[in-house]
Amino acid sequence: MLKLLIAILILFINDSFSQNLINPHGTLVHAIICEDGILLAADSRASWYYIDSSSGNLNTYAHTDSIKKIYALGVFRLGVSGYTILNNQRLEDIVDKFNKKNKPDSSIFETFKKFHYFINNKLKIPDSIISRNQYVLAGYENKAPIVLTIDKGGKEIVMRKIGNRIYTDDIAAKYKYDLQEPLTCDYVKPLIDLMYDSCALAKKDIGTPVNIIKINNDNSVTDLNTFKFRKYKNQKEFFKAILSGAVNIKYDYPFSRDWLFKTLKREISE
Question: Which of 31, 88, 196, 232 could be joined to 238 by an S-S link, Cβ 3.0–4.6 Å?
């Protein structure tokens, strides 16, 4: 009987102009090993923040629920939280470049090591930037399920042990399930839906719809909760889509729209 791994990483995924913010947070990446596959889920919210000068707290002033946070990395799947821009390069583009230039490896550990080397040495992005993010890598090695997590700020790749629950925000502690054996993806999936809906209501930085995939033992993927991600050529194209109204943005204050538009126009012109 396979043990259960629930890896919960709650983090914030942001845009390039917010990279100076302290302790970004918000994104929920969730991995569960079941009898018949690995469920990997991530919310879709990207938020823009400002720092309150009086309290020093981060406050959201605008957000969108249309961001992809799970990527194919070799034959495995990578859930990423943190910065979407690493040294002015989109994370999505970095992953695409890696996949085109590297042959798939059957080892999940070696795959991430190669990915780290590629970012560090080929793209010249320093560890101080790479380690701002947290990463969840999931898949099968020789039909055995494995989830690799790398903590934010971590200098080494750490293999988490199966059988415990991992979370980086107290909100995750609320969701303790009375799980029954056997643990199948069909049984667990509605619990993930409920958890994401509850988290989205309880915490402003987490948003739905949620992207949920099932990783099969041959590392093929079945989409369980699918919503369409529009692919943009680059970050400037994404910003232009926001300015044109093609991307749905929700604003938290009367000044939010003007503030965001001025910021995006500045980013486009640089």
Answer: 232
By three-state DSSP, how is residue 66 classified? coil
Whole-angstrom CA distances from 13 to 19, 121, 150, 196 are: 10, 24, 16, 16
Contact 231, 246 (CB under 8 A): no
Residue with the bigger pLDDT between 172 and 118: it is: 118
239: helix, strand or coil: helix
Of 157, 31, 21, 138, whose CA–CA distance to 85 is shortest? Answer: 21
The residue with greater pLDDT, 182 or 45, is: 45
- Alpha carbon distance 255, 243 (integer Å): 15
Which residues of 228-267 form beta strands (DSSP E)? 250-251
Which of helix, strand or coil describes residue 190? Answer: helix
Q: Look at residue 186 and tell me whether its pLDDT is greater than 60.
A: yes
Strand order in 221-225's β-sheet? 165-166, 6-11, 27-34, 37-42, 211-215, 221-225
Rounded to 5 degrees, what are φ and ψ at 199? -65, -40
Q: Which of 145, 137, 188, 141 is nearest to 163 (CA)?
A: 145
Cβ-count burial 242-262 (b if 16+ within 10 Å, e if not): beeeebebebeeeebeebbee
Does the pLDDT value for residue 193 go beyond 80?
yes
Q: Quote the pLDDT of residue 90.
A: 84
